[in-house]
Each structure stands twice: as structure tokens, then as C-alpha cells.
Amino acid sequence: MPGLTAYVGFFEICPPKTGEHAHVFVSAASGAVGQLVGQFAKFMGCHVVGSVGSREKVELLKNRLGFDGAFNYKEEPDLNAALKRFFPEGIDIYFENVGGKLLDAVLQNMRVNGRIAVSGLLSQYNLEQPDGIQNLMYLVFIRRIRMQGFVVFDYCSIYPKFLGMVLPYL
Ligand SMILES: NC(=O)c1ccc[n+]([C@@H]2O[C@H](COP(=O)([O-])OP(=O)(O)OC[C@H]3O[C@@H](n4cnc5c(N)ncnc54)[C@H](OP(=O)(O)O)[C@@H]3O)[C@@H](O)[C@H]2O)c1
């Protein structure tokens, strides 16, 4: 199920455009969903950076999973500055797994016509008072960003297509 979630979110909701060398950011990037999103993006020739919660996971993404870059969000007091460091030209595709402050920082760093697939909002699930998002204006002025949520169970019909792609790689 997490594998199909990665497949649907990346290929059906926010795929790279033909000929685009997309810059892709994935949060919770070492999780069941995020690690596959990063690998799918690499198959498609994208530049991929992930955020994770420990130095060990940063090394895992860079050395085992083929990510181009990774950072530990717990060691970044200014998430906006961290994203600017990893994406000096901005983000084309954001695969959202966590929400909250990271989403707010991502919105400031999206490129024009960027796409955000909302898979989940891990950082918000157990809060009594969810974080407010302050940078929604970036969806409009002037970035023209498309942000779309999805639920994997609406895509059961493409399960064979998903297996057809991933099984040879196993
Ligand atoms: N839309 C759908 O149909 C669908 C289906 C399945 C899953 N999902 C969603 O996809 C997302 C990823 O799921 P998963 O199965 O990959 O999760 P997972 O394998 O359980 O990985 C979760 C990771 O998220 C990170 N995390 C936990 N709390 C966090 C916080 N407060 N802020 C930032 N990161 C946090 C942790 O990694 P670090 O140590 O690196 O922070 C944790 O190991 C979730 O939001 C889940 O709800 C959606």
C-alpha cells in the first residue's frame, strides 16, 4: 500500500513533464512512501533531495537510496534557508508527507508552475491545534502552483501497472 501511494502520488498526481529536468523535494523521505518517491524520481532523471530526522537517515538517502541530497530538518533552525541552499533555483515538484512548518517553507521555494502532491501531513496528526499555514499566497502570486491531495484507495485499478514497473527493479 505505501508503495502504491508513492507511485500514485508521483506518477499520477505530480509527474515530471516531458523534457523537464525537475527538481524534486520529498519530506519524510526515508519512510515507506518517501524512499520510493525518491527512487522513482531518480528513474525519471530528476534532481531529488529529501528531508529526514537524523544524520543516519541523511546518509541512508545519499549513500543507499540514490538521492542527490538530504538534510536533517531537526538540525535546520531556518527551513526556508535550508531549502534555498538545496534548491537555489527552486522546487518543481514537492511530495508532501509532513505538513506544518516545512510546508510553509516549501511554498516560499516553489518554482513557477510547481506541483505539490499531498500524500499526508504527519507532523499534524497528533496536534490538538494544527499549525496554520501562512504562505498560501504563493499558490497564486506569482507562482501558479497546483496542490492536490489524493487517497491511494481510489487508484486500486492501477495496481497491475504499478507492479509492472516495480517488480523488475526488485
Ligand atoms: N494519501 C494516501 O493514500 C496515503 C497512504 C499511505 C500513507 N500516506 C501518508 O504518507 C505519509 C508517509 O507515510 P509512510 O508510510 O511513509 O510513513 P512511515 O514509513 O511511518 O514514516 C514516517 C516517518 O515520518 C517522519 N515523521 C514522523 N513524525 C514527523 C513529524 N512530526 N514531522 C516530520 N516528520 C515526521 C519520521 O521520520 P524522520 O525521523 O525522518 O522524521 C517517520 O519515520 C504519511 O503522511 C501518511 O499518512 C498517505
From TrEMBL:
Protein's organism: Acer saccharum (Sugar maple)
Gene3D superfamilies on file: NAD(P)-binding Rossmann-like Domain
Name of the protein: Alcohol dehydrogenase-like C-terminal domain-containing protein
Lineage, highest ranks first: Eukaryota, Viridiplantae, Streptophyta, Embryophyta, Tracheophyta
Keyword entries, A-Z: Oxidoreductase
Molecular function terms, GO-annotated: 2-alkenal reductase [NAD(P)H] activity
Domain Alcohol dehydrogenase-like C-terminal: 32-156
PANTHER family named in the record: PROSTAGLANDIN REDUCTASE, PROSTAGLANDIN REDUCTASE 1
